[in-house]
Design a protein that fits this description.
Blueprint (H helix, E strand, L loop, with lengths): L9 E4 L14 E4 L4 H13 L6 E7 L2 E8 L7 H5 L3 H15 L5
Antiparallel strand pairs: 1-2, 3-4
């Protein structure tokens, strides 16, 4: 999340015989496109904890997203490789835009 935008999203796939899907434990990231409803949930979760830049971890019960946590310091390991989108660029652009406009943080 950067501002009110979902920059990119991925699903993490655990290694065989491993129940944890952490990238640093060998899981692979796979790019996914979130439905509008899931995007809205991610935006609302980030706002709820007062963050302008965040990583929102969700699981899905069928098509229904459930927020697990909102990270103030989102991880990048695997994200660029999975999605081919550099979220850091969006963060820098957002910060420069905020600084140029003289806007105060929320």
């Amino acid at each position: 999340m950067v501002g009110d935008r979902v920059i990119t999203s991925m699903r993490r796939v655990a290694q065989m015989h491993e129940w944890r899907s952490n990238i640093h434990l060998g899981a692979k990231g796979v790019s996914i496109e979130l439905a509008d409803h899931a995007r809205d949930i991610a935006v609302r979760a980030s706002r709820a904890v007062g963050l302008e830049i965040s990583g929102v971890d969700m699981i899905f019960r069928g098509d229904e997203p459930v927020v697990l946590e909102v990270n103030a310091s989102p991880g990048f390991r695997g994200l660029l490789q999975a999605t081919q989108i550099n979220a850091a660029d969006a963060m820098v652009d957002y910060a420069v835009e905020k600084a140029s406009s003289g806007a105060k943080p929320k």
